[in-house]
Amino acid sequence: MRLLVVDDEVSLAEAVARGLRREGYAVDVCHDGAAAIAQLDEVAYDLVCLDRTMPGMDGIEVCRHIRRAGSTGPRVLLLTARDTVEDRVDGLDAGADDYLVKPFAFAELGARVRNLLRRDRPQHAAVLAVGDVRADEARRTAFRGERALELTTKEFALLRYFLLHPGEVLSQERLLDHVWDHAADPFTNTVRVTVGTLRRKLSAAGEPPVIETVVGAGYRLVER
Questions:
Q1: Given 53, 84, 117, which residue is the final one in a domain?
Q2: What's the domain count of the chain?
Q3: Is the model's pLDDT at 123 over the cut of 60?
Q4: Cβ atoms of residues 13 and 29 within 8 Å
Q5: 163 in the same domain as 108
Q6: What is the pTM of this model?
Q7: Do residues 13 and 61 both lie within one domain?
Q8: What is the domain range of residue 76?
Q9: Residues 67-81: pLDDT tens digits?
């Protein structure tokens, strides 16, 4: 899942991004509203952690821009030091999905991000499962049947994306957009290599293979 962190406090934005990357998310960072809109117009983010108070274009304006773009835009978690009822109402009316007051514990931020990202799933499932493969996002554990999978952060993120889109053919470009951030080189074979190592670990834990290559199109998690 690809996230955007927007905050004019550079040290805070980078700290939030580091924490979210450790959770397995691909994270981009920018520090003002205009840069955020430029990023949002270029990349299909899944969620935005958005500071409300920034010089120039503030978070409320950015949030309204996101919602004007349509209902398929990213989830928005508004971060702010302003905690009056009026402030919360303004943020939610602008289209924010949730509101977190600074200072906050990263554990709470992580929980709110997970909750927002699973809102569209049946019963808000915290554990993703397809066939005998499952991943627990909160605990960052993955299993095939009863066998634990020892996955790197990126392999876990890739498995999570496959589990969110079972049966769909996922192109290398789509995986690069949603599992890697802007620092990834689109001309390398990083997607192919990571899919290969994930597939080997899944096959070592059980049969039959669950990730198949669709020649000329990408990869698919098979629903069995």
A1: 117
A2: 2
A3: no
A4: yes
A5: no
A6: 0.73
A7: yes
A8: 2-117
A9: 887 657 899 999 988
What pLDDT digit, counting tens, does each position of 173-182 carry?
999 888 988 7
Residue 19 and residue 109 in contact, taking contact as beta carbons nearer than 8 Å: yes
For residue 66, the one-letter residue type is I
Same domain for 157 and 135: yes
Q: Are residues 107 and 12 in the same domain?
A: yes
Same domain, 111 and 131: no
Q: What are phi and psi of 11, to 5 degrees?
A: -65, -40
Q: CB atoms < 10 A from the CB of 208, how many? A: 9
Cis previous bond, 74, omega within 30: no
Q: In b/e form, how buried is each residue of 80-112, taking b as 16+ CB within 10 angstroms?
A: beeeeeebbebbeebbbbbbbeeeeeeeebbeb
Q: Is 19 left (phi over 0), alpha (psi -120 to 50) or beta?
A: alpha
Token couple for 157: 């993120």
Quote the tokens at residue 73. Answer: 């835009």
Q: In angstroms, rounded to a whole number, what is the distance separating the alpha carbons of residues 185 and 145? A: 34
The CA radius of gyration of the chain, in Å to the nearest whole number, is 18
